Amino acid sequence: MTGVAVRLEGLTRRFGGTTAVDGVSFDVRPGEVLGLLGPNGAGKTTTMRMLTGYLRPTAGRAVVGDVVVAADPVTAKASIGYMPESSPLPTDLSVFGFLKYMARLHRVPRAKLAAAAGKAIGQAGLADVRDRRIGDLSKGYRQRVALAQALVHEPAVLVLDEPTAGLDPRQVKETRDLIARLGRSRTILLSSHLLSEVTQLCRRVVVLDQGMVRAFSEVAALTSGGESLEEAYLRLFR
Amino acid sequence: MRAALTIARRDLAGLFLTPFGIGASAGFVAVSGVALVIDLRGNQARLDGWFGPLFFLVGLLVALLTMRAFADEERAGTLELLLTAPVRPAEVVAGKLIGSAASALAIIACTAVCPWLVTTMAQPDGGPIVTGYVGLVLAVVAFSAVGLAVSAATGSPLVAAAGTAAVLLGAWSVGLLAASLTGLPKVLCEQIAPGTHVVGFLRGTLSLDDVVYFLGMAAAGVVATGLVLRSRR
Which of A81, A191, B147, B160 could potentially form a cystine with A36 if both were Cys, beta carbons 3.0 to 4.6 Å apart? Predict the structure, then answer.
């Protein structure tokens, strides 16, 4: 692996005549939690979808480790754990059954499936609801299941799209603590609207606006004038 | 291949855990029972009059089953989880085809009680029963592949089901159109229509032409599904 864990180079995506992401470039260092900020429609989710191989870029490239995602998506995807926005999950499966299914899809060896699912359940604090149907779980637990499925194959890189959206304050703190713990051993790209969360978890942030990088900087540099990150963020969009 | 089987197993099990799957199964078996009663009103121990409508009904069943494969997953958002897993597109398509076809075949297997009932009362010719089921297996695979292509093209399960039903009904209708044509157009329409290729199975014969027709339709559906998935991403 090179000095960066994730690198986006001029990543662009057009949908018909609309350019959703326009020449986005930044990198994420190994073991870093990088914040991805921006207003709704800024292109955060589209950027993450191209990084995870769900969408193909119109131009530019995403590189995970040394692997270009569009050139070798299977290898790249194997090293990424992705928690999509709004945590879409199958409601008919149990938590344990779903995690085993995701582990199988992520090519975890058959003999290690149960252990992998069990470990992700432990990491995400799902032991109480291990055998419950996902459809019967609260929003908070579903968020945790979505996070657990991103962890089940122990990826080197986590891509988390608004992981605390819709959670109550206690659940937000628990999820944030979990991300902080995960960030000690993994590279994380974190999209969030909660600037306090980004301040706590991230040393550097990328700010997107209308599909372009508005700022890519250390949080400390953005707030060097004694501003909070919220004030600095609002200043960028004035 | 392991990933394809994982996807297929999930889809197969998922169907029969839902009221939709149980309802679709019960509905299909019930309608096949009604078709048997109507067929036996002729007081003849032959089942070609029962298998014929079954081929048509299988198209409608497959339209309902394949709408779940991609369109329903896209609506629910879970397609994103599947397509960001380290699974090759060919494995996704193969898994969805195996899952959809296996679901339909599991339901069709329940209709075996109909020929069995007839054999308890009379001695029907076994040949058409065997070839009838062979034909149904081929039709299920072919129709499922077509349904997957339609399902992959939309995020609306209802549009997927209606679209698949429309495509398959359209194909059957081409056969009706052939009756009013002559020459090459007539031959072409007859060759395109599934109805033409079902007749042999109903009579108890296995023709290479008919087998190739359904396998060709399956191959075309698989390729179309892959292309649609690629173009939409």
Answer: A191
Q: How far is residue A48's CA from residue A41's CA, in Å, rounded to a whole number?
A: 13
Q: In this structure, is the dihedral angle defined by the CA atoms of residues A62, A66, A72 and A73, taken in order, positive or negative?
A: negative
Neighbouring residues of B110: CB distance < 8 A, sequence distance ≥ 6: B25, B28, B29
Distance CA B151, CA A170 (A): 40
Q: What pLDDT sits at residue B102?
A: 96
Please check whether residue B103 is in contact with residue B15, taking contact to mean a CB–CB distance below 8 angstroms: yes
Closest Cα of chain B to A104: distance in Å? 7
pLDDT given at position A2: 52
Domain boundaries, chain A: 1-79+157-238, 89-155
- Chain A residues in contact with B18 (beta carbon < 8 A): 92
Please tell me the CATH superfamily of domain A1-79+157-238, with its number.
P-loop containing nucleotide triphosphate hydrolases (3.40.50.300)
DSSP SS3 for B125? coil
What is the DSSP code (8-state) at residue B110?
Answer: G
Spatial contact of B134 and B108, defined as CB atoms under 8 Å apart: no
Contacts of A120 in chain B (CB under 8 A): none
pLDDT score for B57:
94
Residue type, A153: H
CA of A224, closest CA in chain B: separation in Å? 38
Chain B contact probe: residue of A48, A105, A159, A160 with most B CBs at under 10 A: A105
| Segment (H or E) for A43 | none
Tokens representing B209 are 């032409």
| CA-based nearest residue to B135, from B187, B205, B191, B34 | B205
Contact B77 A88 (CB under 8 A): yes
Question: What DSSP string describes A82-99?
Answer: EE-TT----SSSBHHHHH
> Residue-wise pLDDT tens for chain A (238 aa)?
457 899 999 999 999 999 999 999 999 999 999 999 999 999 999 999 999 999 999 999 999 999 999 999 999 999 999 999 888 999 989 999 999 999 999 999 999 999 999 999 999 989 999 999 999 999 889 999 999 999 999 999 999 999 988 788 888 888 899 899 988 889 999 998 888 889 889 999 999 999 999 999 998 888 877 788 888 888 887 7
Within 13 Å and on the Cβ side, how many CA atoms surround B183? 0
- Closest approach of chain B CAs to the CA of A141, in angstroms? 17
- Give the other-Cβ count within 10 Å of B25's Cβ: 19
Residues of A in contact with B20 (CB under 8 A): none
φ/ψ (deg, to 5) at A9: -125, 105
